[in-house]
Amino acid sequence: MNPVNYLYLAALLFTIGATGVLIRRNAIVVFMCVELMLNACNLAFVAFSRMHGNLDGQIIAFFTMVVAAAEVVVGLAIIVSLFRSRHSASVDDASLMKL
Amino acid sequence: MDNLIALLVAAPLLGAAVLLCGGRRLDAVGHWIGTVLAAASFVIGAVLFADMLGKDAEHRAVGQHLFSWIPVEGFQADVAFQLDQLSMTFVLLITGVGSLIHVYSIGYMEHDERRRRFFGYLNLFLAAMLLLVLADNYLLLYVGWEGVGLASYLLIGFWQHKPSAATAAKKAFLVNRVGDLGLSIAIMLMFTTFGTFAFGPVLEATGETGEGTLTAIGLMLLLAACGKSAQVPLQSWLGDAMEGPTPVSALIHAATMVTAGVYLIVRSGEIFNAAPDAQLVTTVVGAVTLLFGAIVGCAKDDIKKALAGSTMSQIGYMILAAGLGPIGYVFAIMHLVTHGFFKAGLFLGAGSVMHGMNDEVDMRRYGGLRKYMPVTFVTFGLGYLAIIGFPGLSGFFSKDKIIEAAFAKGGTEGWILGSVALLGAAVTAFYMTRVMLMTFFGEKRWQPDERGNEPHPHESPKSMTIPMVVLAFGSVFAGGFFGVGDRFVHWLEPVTEHTHGHPPIGATAVTLSTVTVMVVGVGLAYLLYGRRPVPAVAPRGSLLTRAARRDLLQDDFNHVVLVRGGEHLTRSLVYVDHTLVDGVVNGTAASMGGLSGRLRKLQNGYARSYAVSMFGGAALLIAATLLMRAV
């Protein structure tokens, strides 16, 4: 199978993720879309690794996963505390730096 | 002996300081202090005069260096005095007539509670004027010049509770400032041209200087003289200056202030000699003013204003003579001195009349006063005969010489100037006869004033009549003393130089025509005012009479041209300021504000809007990278 097709899929996933970040209000969904974009990038890295025949892309994909895991921990914690204080998970409600 | 020169100025200056700082405890003796110090200055002047007469004509000029005022490299301003024959003449006139006016004021201001202050100002006036004529450089002269302006302001506005007096003082000061500007520019020009202000070096260096520069300096000096001496076009302050107490008018018109302009021109004679254009303008100014003042004098019913017009006209004669160059300088000063006597006498006489008439100044309410005020009548009458140039009296000798010199100028100019001067003599005889007839002859026309007080004309006290008698003596004999044997010419010749002028029609013919026009003027006035009763209310009069009553529209001219013009200029400047300058400033501020308002919207706090920015930026970066790689 032609590896370029993986790149098309990665681009499609990235676009879906970006669109989701821009148009959805629910913080959880926005967060999931961000994950989608990260994974689209990972897919692209792995595809490039295969196309160029070296492992650089795969190593970077692992790094991305580690960073994404840390990010999920911090991000979810923020969203939970935001929801506790405002009783809403909408990102537009959190447009001010104060309560 | 030369060290006494500074004392001449110091005595009245001390008087001014003591009287103005001394406070009320000096009220009782203030007028005596002022008078004694003025007289002391006169005595010092007389001593120096006697000393001067003992020397040869060539060695009479003496000087005294007091101290260095501003000693800077290349800029030496000294406080130093110079006393030569010209300064001496002025010193004696200023202190002599000034002292008499001080004595007169003791009586005249007797009921004024601010008399001490008045004498302080009078002393200040004398000190400033003496500084002006004794200075040996133009910068120190300028100090005296400004001092005279200040003192005149204080004295004209002495009765400051009257709005008219306060305004008149302000007017005199402002009009004088225009002239002062001329003097300061002239001094700056001198410094850039000659590198010094001192009379000696400046006047000696005129030979090596371009005529254009000298003409500019001359014209600026003339502007200065016009301001102080009330010559056209800066004449408008003189009439209003009559708001001051009458002794002040006498002082301004006879001894100080208005003579300063003539002094300045005669002192700067070398500059004018080398600049014929400036001389021509000077003669024209003199000729125009002598007619202007005379015409105004004909129409005024206020005795002081009629005399003010007369002063303007007589000073016009002096400026005319000074503009004629070496044939006229001596006669300008000679007329100045004789005029000092008779004009002071006339003003003190007018003050005496007002004193006896409840301060009434309208001549239409006088009439027949000769029976009530014999001394005033005789002294005023002698002053009158002197000013119209009655043969044998002071004015005859000096004015006749000026008319002769004007004819002797030569060419068409000489004829025009001579004829104007001759015409002026006729008009002088007319208006002075009018004043005389309306005041002292005819039926009595006075009436009770608004409060029902009928005036009781009476002779003034001794302190007032004695100065008038002394001045009347001067009016009668000074001219003959100076004129016979050319005594005054020989006296001043070493300072001002003198060339004998030859009028084209002969000196005797000029004298005869002067006397003839004088008789015609007197006769005409007698027909109009002596043969028939003077109406107590002024008739409407011809167009010229009405214009002359308004000082030949000088104030209207100033108002329309200068005040309105100034207002329009200011308004257009304000308009430009509001539209252009403010427009640029406010426009910049508004556009910055608008831009910031738009930029502010980017920082709205919505996470998704920031995300759009990030995506947009990233897209731009990628597009740019791709573009660069494609190229």
Total number of domains of chain A:
1
Radius of gyration based on Cα positions of chain A: 16 Å
Strand content of chain B: under 5%
- What is the count of β-strands of chain B? 2
The low-pLDDT segments of chain B are none
Just name the CATH architecture of chain A: Orthogonal Bundle
Could you give the distance between the termini of chain B?
Answer: 103 Å
Distance between the termini of chain A: 54 Å
Q: Percent helix among the residues of chain B?
A: over 70%
Subunit structure (chain A): NDH-1 is composed of 14 different subunits. Subunits NuoA, H, J, K, L, M, N constitute the membrane sector of the complex.
GO cellular component, one term (chain A): plasma membrane
Subcellular location (chain A): Cell membrane; Membrane
Family (chain A): Belongs to the complex I subunit 4L family.
Give a quick summary of the entry.
The complex is a heterodimer of chains A (99) and B (631). With 99 residues, chain A is mainly α. Chain A is built from three helices and no strands.
